[in-house]
Amino acid sequence: MKRCIELASKAMGSVSPNPMVGCVIVYEGNIIGEGYHEKYGKAHAEVNAIASVKDKSLLAKSTLYVNLEPCAHFGKTPPCSNLIVEHKIPKVVIGCVDTFSEVSGKGIEKMQKAGIEVVVGVLEKGSRELNKKFFTFHEKKRPYIVLKWAESQDGFIAPKNQIAPFWMTSSESKKLVHQWRSEEDAILVGRITAEKDNPSLTTREVVGKNPIRIVTDKELKLSKELNLYNNEAQTLIFNNIKSEKIDSNNFIKINFNNLIESILQELYKQKIQSIIIEGGSRTLQSFIDANMWDEARIFTANKILIDGIKSPTIKGKIVTETEIGGDKLEIIINA
């Protein structure tokens, strides 16, 4: 099962809105086949693992391990539970049940009805952790929310009268942030951050897909010359004036009276499973105050500003503390 999770994680950022799945087939204590779901719309892990087995006659005497319940419905590909039944694999070991309504227990039921021995809950915690974004989306009807900011040693997120774009952390930290962007579906900033920093919100420092860019611009005051409006990535502009699509820019009219809830409802509708909030202090604090966050990634840079815009205040459980290029990085979860 550890190997399944290891294989599955190779597809980080490539399979959304599908979950990450790895599969291993074992005959008499030896791995005879393995595979993972490599890209959205492509073959699932079980299909790739079964295809990799050279002697298919061994499948009828083997055990199949998979970190997530095999699907039972027709989507982009046929049901994996059907394929397992077809090949008469006698035993299947599953990390965790798929709580997505189209699957939820149906794959297990189908295999059991065919006489297959099914074991569920092996490394369940690790299997759920791997696909926490997928589970959050389907169970809470909203994306998995990551807050990210950098602050000075004296607790400021930016200089007080910032004129030019300001980068707080080291080049190593910047590269890591771009890696994170490639792993999430979307990234959000507020109007003031878009105006002052003119960010591109792309993954230009690493190899990886650009996230969907999102900006809140209530009265559509932002200049169309900003980097956010280029065609390097799809951009959603939440506003209270119009809904209109122009090239890669999608203007979406939402209710600003209950902004956080309106944003999350729209993201769920757009099938966005995970989002990084990289806005300014006010935008970040609004998600914290609404208790709508799952994880916070906070850099403390080797800088002292003396005065400036105060960092957001947050309470949670620190799960890791590391050093990146002279910056301290804390990962906090909303526990």
Key structural traits:
five-stranded mixed beta sheet; single chain; alpha/beta; 26% helix; 335 residues; 27% strand; elongated
Brief characterization of the structure:
With 335 residues, this protein is α/β, with parallel strands linked by helices. Helices cover 26% and strands 27% of the residues. The two termini are 26 Å apart.
Molecular structure report:
The model has no long low-confidence stretch (mean pLDDT 95). Helix content is 26%, strand content 27%. The protein has helices spanning 2-8, 45-52, 80-86, 106-113, 124-130, 132-140, 171-183, 191-197, 259-269, 281-289; strands spanning 22-27, 30-36, 63-68, 91-96, 117-120, 144-151, 156-158, 186-190, 212-216, 235-239, 244-246, 249-253, 274-277, 295-300, 309-310, 317-324, 327-333. The protein has 10 helices and 17 strands. The strands form 3 sheets. Strands 11-12-10-9-8-13-6-14-17-16 form a 10-stranded mixed β-sheet, with helices on both faces.
